[in-house]
Design goal:
271 residues; alpha/beta; Rossmann fold; eight-stranded mixed sheet; 14% strand; binds S-adenosylmethionine
Length: 271
């Protein structure tokens, strides 16, 4: 599989999947901020726009990734052995299965994303890992996604499961996001976890509107949400300490410098 894409927009063959490389996509914009190579000129242009507004946006992406890893480690430490990562993004160091399987090699991880590039790269990464799978699905069709045979084959709903909606709900409307978290709550057993982060304007009120234009040419605008709006996603869940916090302030462990204020993070547990 090709891992690098040139500046001239050369036709890169990704199996037979139409990757729509003529327009920016969230997974690839994020990949660029994380220093990855799985992005194309329109993605880089959008990502650079954000950086021109605020140079700390790539750091915010790294801190979001670090939050995801802290949350998975904490949850694995409580004994959870099944993880469903929705809006998983392109593989990057410290993927969910790497963190979870470092705690217990038998941990099972399901990756889902609506960008087909995630499937092609994920399959290559996970080819010889029997406890993981990746398929294409949409958080707006949560039930369909939970009923998917590949998820059903790996996840035992008699046991608690951690569902990750990290940096993805801001790509769907309030109604769609609330329906998704409600459906997760209905489908998982007691003792399960919900891990979530969402972009916000509250930490950078002057620059947020301009930074949000990064997503103008993608399929969906970004929904910046307040702390209270993020907290509302946890209705019916027990919100763990410290509640909804800026990403680097959610149980910091010193692995990042923790200065960005572009996203809120929270973890809930089903009582
Ligand atoms: C900013 S990345 C976050 C990746 C990863 N969750 C993380 O936090 O490191 C957002 C991901 O959500 C995916 N995405 C956007 N809308 C989606 C939807 N409606 N359903 C599923 N995935 C979606 C994008 O393709 C992208 O890979």
């Amino acid at each position: 599989m090709t891992k690098s894409h040139g500046d001239e927009g050369e036709a890169v063959q990704h199996e037979l999947t139409d990757l729509q490389t003529d327009r920016p996509h969230p997974a690839r914009i994020y990949d660029y901020w994380l220093g990855g190579k799985d992005n194309f000129p329109p993605d880089r242009k959008a990502a650079e726009h954000a950086i021109s507004v605020s140079a700390d946006i790539p750091a915010a992406a790294r801190e979001n990734r670090a939050f995801l890893q802290r949350a998975v480690r904490m949850i694995a430490g409580t004994g959870i052995r099944q993880f469903v990562d929705i809006g998983a993004g392109l593989p990057s160091p410290g993927n969910v299965h790497e963190v979870a399987q470092s705690v217990d090699p038998d941990s099972r991880v399901v990756y889902v994303d609506n960008d087909p590039i995630v499937l092609t790269h994920g399959r290559a990464l996970l080819a010889d890992n029997r406890s993981t799978t990746v398929f294409t699905g949409d958080v707006r069709k949560l039930d369909e996604l939970f009923d998917h045979p590949e998820l059903q084959a790996l996840v035992d709903f008699e046991q608690p499961v951690a569902v990750l909606l990290v940096a993805v709900l801001h790509f769907v409307s309030d109604e769609e996001a609330h329906r998704a978290v409600r459906q997760v709550l209905e489908r998982v057993p007691a003792g399960s976890y919900l891990v979530l982060s969402n972009s916000t304007h509250e930490g950078n009120p002057e620059r947020a509107a301009e930074a949000a234009k990064t997503w103008d040419k993608t399929e969906t605008p970004i929904r910046l949400r307040t702390r209270d709006q993020v907290a509302a996603f946890f209705e019916g869940w027990e919100l763990l300490e410290p509640g909804v916090e800026f990403v680097p302030l959610w149980r910091p462990d010193g692995s990042t410098d923790g200065t960005t204020r572009w996203m809120y993070a929270a973890v809930g547990r089903k009582a």
